[in-house]
Design goal:
The complex is a heterodimer of chains A (316) and B (377).
Chain A: E1 7-18, E2 21-32, E3 36-40, H1 47-54, E4 62-67, E5 70-71, H2 76-82, E6 83-86, H3 98-108, H4 114-125, H5 140-152, E7 158-162, H6 170-185, E8 189-193, H7 197-200, E9 205-210, E10 213-219, H8 223-227, E11 230-235, H9 239-248, E12 254-258, E13 261-266, H10 269-282, E14 286-290, H11 294-310
Parallel strand pairs in A: 3-8, 3-9, 6-7, 7-8
Antiparallel strand pairs in A: 1-2, 1-4, 4-5, 9-10, 11-13, 11-14, 12-13
Chain B: H1 6-22, H2 24-46, E1 52-58, H3 63-74, E2 78-84, H4 87-96, E3 101-105, H5 109-115, E4 120-126, H6 130-152, E5 167-173, H7 184-210, H8 213-218, H9 224-254, H10 262-286, H11 290-307, H12 319-326, H13 329-343, H14 351-371
Parallel strand pairs in B: 1-2, 1-3, 4-5
Antiparallel strand pairs in B: 3-4
Classes of the chains: A alpha/beta (316), B alpha/beta (377).
Bound molecules: adenosine-5'-triphosphate and magnesium ion.
Chain lengths: 316, 377
């Protein structure tokens, strides 16, 4: 708790190897206290592994860092007391009831007035009537909500949420994000991994990881600028034919379709503008220059990730 | 290990009991296995098989011989199929199983009995199945003695009369030493406890990592010892129940005596349960899935049955097998139960066996603690 008192998480050079495969490679991350920090990246990029190292579930092969001011290498027990970790895979007991599960977690953290807290959590979840149902018989979305409730019982200062809304319906997801923002306003720090763009845009900060390397990180709004992405919006006319044509054009970085609208982006602004002006002369569609959004940015990053896959050893 | 929390320990304990109660099949197995095994083995013990096929090699004949054979026949143990003419024919019949016994009346038997030379009747027995033949073998001397005594009264008394008019020599073939069945029941307790305690503990712990619940558990401030004790103690109680069921059944169904000190038994038995749970814990640090845990447990069961002295006499095993056998806790527990139950031993008599189990436990603890990870990797 010295120079980085404002940071809930600060790690440098985190590295994890499984066998000869480097799964997380010299990873740096700074998460300001009270912020909502989005953690994005394709499947298998090392998000879960990174989160596990931060809360002491995996021992890093290299690197160092602090979590809530505690050393992640030596003070993992202190970290665990103040962190709520929601695992990606359901990790509560399917053969215990909802109440028994919550009660068990409350005991693990030695909470005072346990019953009251469990009751309140059940109430908040809207699961009061089904408190005595076995957790294994809940639907996927309900399991997620119950896991979230379980990891927040002890009112942690930092939440590590690993794809908390996978398989959760839109209404429940909105409720969930409302709750996250409420907690954040109270000073709780939230690190959340997700594959959903609409969730990414709700974050204050974002880090994007691929092959265990951090590709980019920063305030959510600045991500497109950091990448240096430029975008033209195109509408009208035969949009599908145009989409085909633009995909063939080597000067265009990427074409993303949003219903009747195309977002044509690239990092080489001159080349992109050249294409735009040619098409504007043809006059078949309406072209408008616009700021690149997060969506385009992520599509761009993901596309880059796929390319790397094709190059053998490119990631290692 | 600064501050163990009783609250966390008891939370794990309660959870484990609830899960055990809901897992009906495993629960039924834990109680059912000992009862089933005891009944199976007990049936073998009860069966003191009679009417075993027997051949005679008569190298002499006369009134005494006839009396001996007649009383063997009436004892119901032996059914005479016929006669063989030589040693080879008899051996062949034993080998291919047409006969369980060949009785050899030696040449000049009648004359030697009368002269008081105490000749030998040879009983060649197929002892590859000791439980089948031992009852008959044990009965033989008595039968023959009575028969000869009877046929000698009235006939010429041998002068001077020897202690016994003749002796019966038993050749047990294919299995030089055979266990008496009553030994099997106390030994069985060791095998049953090894099997269920090791397997259940290993499976219960591996289940946490297989179902992914270990991740949530490790993310809490819980300490390894709290988890370990919380998970193990319910199964100690299961071991108690199994043993109680077992001892009652042994006593009342099969008349197996309990001659020695209950205290000695109780202490030895607790030590044995503890070491089994530790072995189970050790297996859980190796196995990646419940299936693997089960397979490794079964793998350890095999030497427990074969090399502990449960099925084959320990002293008769080759040196290397004895060395392996000595490293198996059940070997020593077997001795404890046999000594206490059958030979009336007390605490002092089993001290060396307990020391051996203690030494094994110490090694297992050191290995498993060095393997135990408080993380997922
Ligand atoms: N215990 C393990 N042993 C070996 N390899 C592992 C282990 N855990 C993870 N990996 C590998 O590490 C890589 C990163 O996995 P990780 O679960 O961190 O990815 P992720 O970003 O969380 O992916 P997803 O979005 O699918 O959840 C994967 O290639 C995975 O196969
Ligand atoms: Mg993951």
């Amino acid at each position: 708790m010295t120079d980085n008192a404002d940071l809930a998480i600060s790690v440098r050079g985190l590295t994890k190897r499984f066998g000869d495969k480097t799964v997380v490679d010299r990873f740096d991350m700074d998460v300001p206290r009270g912020s909502i920090y989005g953690f994005l990246g394709p499947n298998g990029s090392g998000k879960t592994t990174t989160i596990r190292m931060m809360c002491g579930l995996l021992v890093p092969d290299g690197g160092e860092g602090e979590c809530l001011g505690y050393d992640i290498l030596t003070q993992s027990r202190r970290i665990k007391e103040h962190v709520g970790y929601m695992t990606q895979r359901f990790s509560l007991y399917e053969d215990l009831t909802i109440r028994e599960n919550l009660d068990f977690m409350a005991r693990m953290f030695r909470l005072k007035d346990r019953t009251a807290r469990v009751d309140k959590a059940l109430d908040d979840l809207g699961l009061k009537d089904r408190a005595d149902q076995l957790a294994g018989t809940l639907s996927g979305g309900w399991k997620q909500r119950m896991s979230l409730a379980a990891c927040m019982l002890h009112e942690p200062r930092l939440l590590l949420l690993d794809e908390p809304t996978a398989g959760v319906d839109p209404k429940a997801r909105r409720d969930f994000w409302d709750e996250i923002r409420r907690l954040s306003a109270k000073g709780v720090t939230v690190l959340v991994s997700t594959h959903y763009m609409d969730e990414a845009v709700q974050c204050d900060f974002i880090a994007y990881i691929a092959y265990g390397r951090r590709l980019i990180s920063g305030p959510a709004g600045e991500i497109p600028n950091i990448i240096g992405l430029h975008t033209w919006q195109v509408e009208g006319g035969d949009i599908s034919a145009l989409e085909e044509e633009l995909r063939e054009d080597e000067r265009v970085g990427q074409v993303a379709r949003f219903g009747p609208v195309l977002h044509v982006s690239g990092t080489d602004q001159a080349a992109l503008d050249e294409v735009a002006h040619e098409h504007i002369k043809r006059g078949t569609h309406k072209w408008t220059a616009r700021e690149a959004g997060l969506e385009e940015a992520f599509i761009y990053l993901m596309a880059g990730a796929r390319d790397n896959f094709a190059v053998p050893g490119g990631a290692q | 290990m600064i501050s163990l929390s009783f609250a966390r320990f008891s939370a794990v304990l309660i959870k484990e009991f609830v899960q055990m109660r809901r897992d009906r099949v495993t629960f039924a197995m834990m109680i059912g296995i000992p009862v089933m095994q005891l009944l199976l083995f007990g049936y073998a013990i009860n069966s003191d098989p009679k009417h075993l096929p027997t051949l005679v090699q008569m190298d002499d004949s006369g009134p005494i011989t006839r009396a001996v054979l007649a009383s063997m026949q009436t004892s119901d143990y032996f059914d005479f199929l016929g006669a063989v003419t030589g040693r080879e024919e008899g051996d062949r019949a034993l080998r291919d199983g047409t006969a369980n016994f060949v009785v050899v009346i030696p040449q000049n038997f009648e004359r030697d009995v009368l002269r008081g030379l105490s000749p030998d009747i040879l009983l060649a027995a197929d002892a590859s199945d000791p439980t089948a033949t031992s009852g008959a073998v044990a009965a033989l001397t008595g039968i023959v003695d009575a028969a000869v005594a009877q046929s000698l009264t009235g006939a010429r008394q041998p002068e001077p009369r020897p202690a016994a008019p003749f002796t019966v020599t038993v050749h047990r073939q294919f299995n030089p030493e055979s266990e008496t069945p009553i030994n099997i029941v106390p030994g069985l307790l060791g095998v049953i406890l090894s099997m269920t305690m090791v397997m259940i503990t290993a499976v219960a712990i591996v289940r946490e990592s297989e179902r992914g619940t270990m991740e949530a558990l490790l993310a809490t401030p819980v300490r390894p010892l709290e988890v370990m004790f919380g998970k193990i103690i319910p199964y100690i109680l299961v071991g108690y129940v199994q043993t109680a069921v077992f001892l009652l059944a042994a006593r009342f169904l099969f008349d197996v005596p309990f001659l020695g000190s209950p205290l000695a038994f109780f202490i030895g038995f607790n030590l044995f349960i503890a070491v089994n749970l530790m072995v189970g814990f050790l297996i859980s640090t190796v196995a990646r899935s419940q299936m693997q845990a089960m397979q490794i447990s079964f793998f350890t069961l095999l030497p427990t049955i074969l090399l502990s002295g449960f099925l084959f006499p320990f002293a008769g095993m080759p040196g290397w097998a004895q060395a392996i056998g000595s490293a198996i806790p059940a070997t020593h527990f077997l001795r404890i139960t046999r000594k206490v139950m059958l030979k009336g031993a007390g605490l002092a008599d089993i001290a060396s066996d307990m020391a051996a189990i203690g030494a094994i436990a110490a090694v297992v603890i050191v290995i498993s603690l060095s393997r135990y990870r408080q993380t997922l990797d």
